[in-house]
Structure formats: C-alpha cells, structure tokens
Amino acid sequence: MRVQLASPSPASSVRQRLGAAACLLLAGSMPAAAQTPLAPGWQLETSGLFYGEQLRAKVIEPTGRLTRQFANGRALSLGLAVDAITGASPTGGLPTGQVQTTTSSSGRSSTTTADAVPTHPFQDLRYAADLGWTEPLGSLVSASTSAHFSQEKDYASIGGGLKTSVDVLNRLVTLTVGGGYNHDRVFPTGGTAVGLSPDTTPRVPGDNPKQVRTGLVGISRVVSRRWLLGATGSQTRETGYLTDPYKIISLTDPATQLPVAQVTEKRPSERLRDDVLASSVYHFEQDIFYANYRYYWDDWGVRSHTLDMKVRHDISSESWVQPHVRLYAQSPASFFVFGLTQGQPLPEFASADERLGPLRTATFGATYGFRVPGHRGEFTLRGEYMYQWLVGRPPTAIAPSTNTPGDNLRGSIAAEGDDSGGGQHLGTNIGTILIGYTVPF
Amino acid sequence: MRTRRRTFAALVLLAGIGIPGCATVHPWDRDLMAKPTMRFVPVPHEMAVDDHIYFSKEGSTGGMDAAGGGCGCN
Fold this sequence. Notes:
- The complex is a heterodimer.
- Chain A is built from two helices and 22 strands.
- Chain A is mainly beta.
- Chain B has a domain at about 30-60.
- At the A-B interface, helix 1, strand 2, strand 3, strand 9 and strand 10 of A face helix 1 and helix 2 of B.
C-alpha cells in the first residue's frame, strides 16, 4: 500500500512534538517566599539533552545560560538553545493491518509494519535565544521582564513577558502577577493545507499568524520552618492558526474498517487554556520532598491531572541523588478522532493528533549531582524513562464500528479500551539523558 | 458554568494558601528556607528541559512555567 503524504515535510509536526525551550516566557514564575538571592557575580549554566523515542524521534539539545547578579538585586540573564531533531513522527493515520509505504513529495519514503502507527521521517534544526532583566523596586517588590526569539525552517516566534512579585506579612507570603505575549508565524513547507481536505488539494502559500496571550497570579507561603507551600493559576488565550499543518486523519471503509483514504486535520482558531498548580516543598531532617499537582482545562475539552514528586537525598557534602516520579492523564479534545468513516459528512473540526487524545504518561528517573573537590562548579547527571500511551487506540484499523451514521470511531474505540481492555496500548518508550554543569565565577 | 466553578475553585486555592495561620516563622527560624534547595524548582535547567518535553508531547501546558507560547509544540 502506497500513500502520498498530505505534506511534503512534517517538520512542523516534529517541532510540535519536540519544540523548544523558549516556551519559558515566564520561566520561574512560581513565587518563592523567603528566597535568598544569588550572591553577586556571574553564573554559567550549561546542559546537554539526549532524547530518544523508540523507532521515532531523536533530539540533541545543548543549552547555555549566563546570569549576571548585581549587588543591588538587579540581574541580567541570557539564554541560548539549539535543537537538532531527526527521526520519525506519527502522521495521525491509523495502523492499516498491512505493510505501508509512505512517500513525501521530496521523494523520501518510509515503510511501516502492519500493526505500527504510521510515521514519517523528518529532520529539523531550531535556534532560540532569550534575554531577561530583574529590577528590585524597594526592599519588598521585584519586577522582571523577558524577551525571546526563536526560528526554524517553518516556524518563528517572538515575544516578551512582565512579572512583578511583592513580599508581605513579614516576608512569609509572596504574591506574583505576570503576563506575556507572543507573536508566532507558521509557514509550512509546501504551503498550508486546507483543513479536512484530501491531500491532493492545492496548498495555500504564505504565513499563518498565531498570537498567544498569558496571564498568571501566584502566591507562596512559608508555612513553618520546614514547609514551603505555593499555588499558581494561569490562563492562556491562543488565536490564529492552531492546526498542525502536517497531520492527517484516516478515512475508513464503513464495511471493512480499513483505511482507504485520508484528509488533513482542522482545529478551531481559538483556544482558552486554564490551569492551577499547587506546590509543596518540605524539609525533613535530612531529605527534601518536592510535590506538585496541576489541574488543567481548556475550551477544546481537554482536562488533565499531573502529579510530580521528587526527593532529594544528600549522600555526602559533595554529592546528592534525587529520584523523580511523574504521572499524567488527560481526556481527549471534543474533536479528537482515531479515524473518520468514509462517505459520512465531515465534522467542522477533527484531529487525530495523539496529543489531543486520551493520553497517559508515566515518567521515572533520578538525578545524581556532585562537586569535584577544590572546584566551585556542580555537575548533574539525570536519566529518565518515559512511557506514553493512548487509552483505546485501535490495534489495527479493524476497530469496532459505530452505530450512529456520520459518527466517528472515537467513542466506541475509546470506550472499549477503557472499560473492557479490548483496545491495545501501543505505547511509546522514551529515554532521556541530561548532563548539566553550573558554575559561579 | 463548569469553567466558572473551576475558576472559583482555583481562586479559593490561591487565597487559602495565603491566609495567615496562627503560627509564624521568625527570621531566625528560616535557616532551612535560606538553602538554595528549598525552592519549588530545585534544579532550574531540569525544569526548562522538562517543560520542553512535556509541552511538546502532551495536550496541556501551564503551571511552573506558565508558558506563554514561543514554540509550536502544541
């Protein structure tokens, strides 16, 4: 079976899967009561990420951050990052039950086994830079501003943010208010696909704008000598081109349930996203326990729960270890489908992007940190394993049929996977290694 | 209506943490709080990497970083 992809290049899909660190518009926005400022001087933070998905994407990402802390509390920070991404990305199509060869217009092709999620090879390179400035306004108030820029072959972003924190109640409580704005441009290779159209439909050349506005409020409190507690709420409004230009949706035969064609995906042009995060840091006699819980919801119908826990244990005065566990579960967007039935009317919006599906993620790992005697810097080495899967993904295209004319495959398949275990968890194994080095000078 | 309830619950959580209790923590009792490891993000460069990964692999965002965008990860 030979399929012409809807897109000549899935680079943006890659970016959407493995985007970049410039998302940290308001990095470190969580307020932190009673935090001791850094000592005046310079600090260099460097890291190298090695990321690998089984049979899919590979990423190497070196980053660097240089911070100048002044004696009066002012601080200047410059960050740089490069993402080198290669590998394969899911197209959004269903497993076919047959060996499948996919070819892009550039002539590159890939072969997918009968029960595998169809993917397409890609590569991309991304550059990002950000600049931040912190200015104390008296002894209790601090303001910081940041700006960032990033560029890749089919996506560009420029934006900035502003944040203000104030300490109250004898510095037991810190209140934070912030906001940010990004203006992005999406210019897919080969032009922009028309939503929910066959892949033979001519593409539209030119840029697609996207705006992102974020606001947040936060509070942190020193509860006791050992306990720090915090909460942050944020809201993000995205407008403009929010569709993944390279994702497709399989059209299945109503009788055989086999994929027989495909269309491009289409998402709404607005998205309102909210979340609230509760954080706790507790210092036991020796160890420190970090816990975070986040609840997220948006007007696309996605709801998620995230639980993240770490324990730091000092092995000696020169070394420490920090195990990490993270559990994540989300409900699908209202327009998420595994596939559509051919011959039935198309919905207004539809996407088979697994990141909008009934997704689960489990992460386990540990960081080891150490200092070399006589040296001021600290090295860290972290290894993590991540398993990600969709609840109810059909093992092949032969999936339970829907009874409602014009309905899609989403409901029945998801229900089977959740309740009876009939759906197969075709998960993704992911491993990461992160090497870090931080040194003041 | 559901969104309003969630927003209200979020505001209650934010306010609840800020309500001062009976106990106070005197400046001379903040030795542990002064440690650089007593912060919500113990290893900053790990947070940057984690946000990078999870933002691009999942449908949610926000929280520690309150990401305002900057990449097309989602």
